[in-house]
Structure formats: C-alpha cells, structure tokens
C-alpha cells in the first residue's frame, strides 16, 4: 500500500504542476483587477508547442537539444525522493544532500541552454542565472543545515518528526523556515527576484535562456518550469508541515498545502515589484544570513 501511495503522489505532482502554475497566474491577475488566464492555460500551451515544428539555431550543438530533458530529469529525480505520503518504502532513496546537488545540476543545464543557443539574450540570461545560483546555493545549504542539526539525519523522512519532538529548536526552526522561503522564491524565478511574465531584455533572467526554443523542446522546458514550483513546494511542506497517520490523508494534505502555496505566490507577486538585479545579491545574502544565524543559535545551545 505504501508503494501505491508513493507512486500516486508522484503521478499527481507530475500531472497537476501546470494547473498549479495556472492558479498562481490567475490569482495574481484577480488581485490586480484583471480577469486573467484560465487555470488550464499551461496545459493548452504545452500541447500546442508539443505539436509544433521544432527548430534548432544554426550554431548550436547537441547541448541545445539535450538541455530541456536534462533540466527536467533532475526535478523528476527530486520528486521521486520526496516521501509525499509521509513515509517511504524500504530502501527508497530520500537524501537531502542529493536534492541539493540535483537542483544545482538543473541550474547548470539551464545556463548551458542559454549559452549554447549562441544568441545575445541567451548568453545574458545564462550569465544572470549563474550569478544568482552562486547566491542561492549557500543560502539553501544554510537553511538545510539547521534541519540536519535538529534531526542529525540527511534523510528527508526523519526531519519532520525530529523538528516536532524538539521544542527547544522552535526559534531556529522558524528562522530556517524564513530562510528557506526566501530561497525558494529565488529558486522558482518569481518576484521579487525574477518576473516570468516579461520578455524585456533588461529584466528577464530565466526566460532569456528559453527564447531560442520552440516546439517540443519548449514544451519540455515549460513543464520543467511548472514542475519546479510544485516539487519544491511539496518538499518544503513534507519537511515543515504536519504529518498525519494515514497515507491517503497525507496525500490530500500535501495537495491542499501546495495549492495554498501557489495562491500565496500569486498574492506575493501582486504586492511586490521586481528588485533591481544588483539588489538581488543582498536579498540572497539576507536569506543565507538568517539560515546561518539559526544554525549558530542551535549549535550554540541558544534556543528559545
């Protein structure tokens, strides 16, 4: 039964990730006084792109063709490692350090995709994405460090019980949660770090790496973009959220939590403007600083 629940949870995340993207876009539009797109729009866009002819820039290499699949593959592996139902079958891989390195691999291939397109905007987007990655990784590692310090486990499954049974770690845990939330906004490429709805050359980051893509390559990249939000939101709630005794209750709870996250993301994007690019390092430094402070408080015994 545990295998069935885990496979069903993975299938739900894969299937519903474009819907979650649509909920965010619709929520943001409604809060800005616009009707906004349908929540099902991304399904239609991906289907349309999948049936279009796929073209390749003249000076690109095999990297250009591999990049969409190679950005999607690490996210699929991360999804498989998450104990969505609350527990994982025996010998099921679920290591937090593996998640960290897989996310770094996804960013690496996103940068390669922009560079190999041999376009001006692609190179600019790859440069910006790589620069952000140098700030995201230490901030993410600092946030994950506090979870390891509390549980003394690198595996994902023991993290949540350890956090709940150690009340002295409440304040560091709260700081680490704030740090993780700030990092995820940057990892997702959403406001105030990046604006996925613009194609202005002065502001776009992730979108610049996709400008040369079309057809099936673009559909795969769009699926990876929507999947990243759903996968990381699920991971965050598995670590920080409640864990029920029933496998099926956990699946329903995860679905509700991710839906609330996408609505909250639309709320955040309707209330904040994009930071200037040279302000983003300070934002990421603040996220890393909060995580390091939480780790220092817990390691030094200064908990409340």
From TrEMBL:
InterPro entries: ComplexI_Subunit1, NADH_UbQ_OxRdtase_su1/FPO. The chain crosses the membrane at residues 6-24, 62-85, 91-109, 129-148, 168-186, 217-239, 251-268, 280-299. Coiled coil: none annotated. It comes from Sulfobacillus acidophilus. It holds the Pfam family NADHdh. Signal peptide: none annotated. The lineage of its organism: Bacteria, Bacillati, Bacillota, Clostridia, Eubacteriales. It comes from the Bacteria. This is Formate hydrogenlyase. GO terms for molecular function: lyase activity. It is found in: Membrane. One of its GO terms (cellular component) is plasma membrane.
């Amino acid at each position: 039964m545990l295998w069935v629940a885990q496979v069903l949870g993975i299938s739900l995340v894969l299937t519903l990730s474009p819907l979650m993207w649509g909920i965010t876009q619709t929520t943001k539009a409604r809060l800005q006084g616009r009707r906004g797109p349908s929540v099902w729009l991304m399904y239609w866009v991906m289907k349309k792109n999948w049936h279009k002819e796929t073209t390749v820039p003249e000076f690109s290499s095999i990297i250009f063709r591999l990049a969409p699949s190679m950005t999607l593959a690490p996210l699929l592996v991360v999804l498989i490692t998450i104990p969505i139902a609350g527990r994982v079958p025996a010998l099921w891989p679920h290591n937090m350090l593996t998640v960290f390195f897989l996310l770094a691999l996804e960013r690496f291939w996103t940068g390669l995709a922009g560079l190999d397109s041999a376009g001006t905007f692609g190179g600019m987007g790859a440069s910006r994405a790589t620069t952000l990655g140098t700030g995201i990784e230490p901030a993410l590692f600092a946030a994950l460090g506090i979870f390891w310090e509390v549980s003394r486990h690198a595996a994902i499954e023991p993290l949540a019980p350890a956090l709940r049974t150690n009340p002295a770690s409440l304040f560091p845990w709260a700081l680490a949660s704030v740090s993780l939330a700030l990092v995820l906004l940057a990892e997702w490429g959403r406001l105030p770090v990046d604006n996925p709805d613009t194609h202005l050359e002065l502001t776009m980051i992730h979108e610049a790496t996709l400008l040369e893509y079309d057809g099936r390559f673009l559909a795969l990249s769009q699926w990876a973009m929507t999947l990243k939000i759903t996968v990381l939101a699920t991971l965050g709630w598995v670590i920080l959220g409640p864990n029920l005794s029933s496998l099926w209750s956990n699946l329903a709870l995860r679905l509700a939590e991710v839906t609330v996250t996408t609505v909250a993301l639309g709320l955040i994007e309707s209330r904040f403007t994009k930071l200037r690019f040279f302000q983003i390092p300070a934002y990421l430094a603040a996220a890393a600083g909060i995580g390091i402070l939480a780790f220092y408080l817990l390691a030094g015994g200064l908990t409340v």
